[in-house]
Design brief:
Oligomer: single chain
Radius of gyration: 17 Å
Shape: globular
Strand content: 25-35%
Helix content: 10-25%
Structural class: alpha+beta
Order of helices and strands: EHEHEEEEEHEHEHEHEEHEE
Number of helices: 7
Strand order of the largest sheet: 3-4-2-1-14-13
Length: 260
Amino acid sequence: MQIATWNVNSVKARLANVTDWLREASPDVVCLQEIKTVDEDFPREAIEDLGYNVETHGQKTYNGVALLSKFPIEETLRGLPGDDADDHARYIECVISHDSGPVRVASIYLPNGNPAPGPKYDYKLAWMRRLKHHAAELLGYEERLILAGDYNIIPRDSDVHDPAAWEGDALILPQSRAAFREILNLGFTDAFLQADGKGHQYTFWDYQRGAWQKDHGIRIDHLLLSPQAADALKGVEICKPVRGKEKASDHVPVVGTFGF
């Protein structure tokens, strides 16, 4: 089973790229972020024609997450629990009915948090505390669980081309990294670190300053695995060539392969 995460940076603007990649790579489950559309305007038919069931949690112009699955979807949670006043569409969680048993998957678009310090950074850290609380509850189910998405966290200095260039950025601040480690320390595994772990392999390249051409990237798209999912991990692929396509997203898909 292959489970992918991809921040598409507007699903309608990148639809040709998205459908081309889905057709070529044919992953079983795909977690999309920054779809930037309300649910009713999501290009559902184009995705369903490729054999996917589709669940979305959209928002006009900003944010938005979706989950695509070649297997039936049994249940869906839209929105991260813990703050009824939070109207950002940043979290969707589904139970996938796989032949070998259920697999719980979430698509996450964690807040950027810039500028820091400030209200946006406070929101980021508060959102991460909510995610930690919910993730701890999910671990209690003792099931195959994948929390996939754009975490807007650079976990290690080797996950960025030049740490000094990002000093003071919310993605790399010590408090951000500590909050990410707190989630991992609940019992999650960073799939990339388990499967590969080599430094300077990136999932995002900015559109500015020739970042793609210079390979000035960062690794911020992650698959966090429960012990039951980590035990089945076979490998992780960062689909770097996708970034070189015309009208590409600034992120690329990250695909985990599992033995279930």
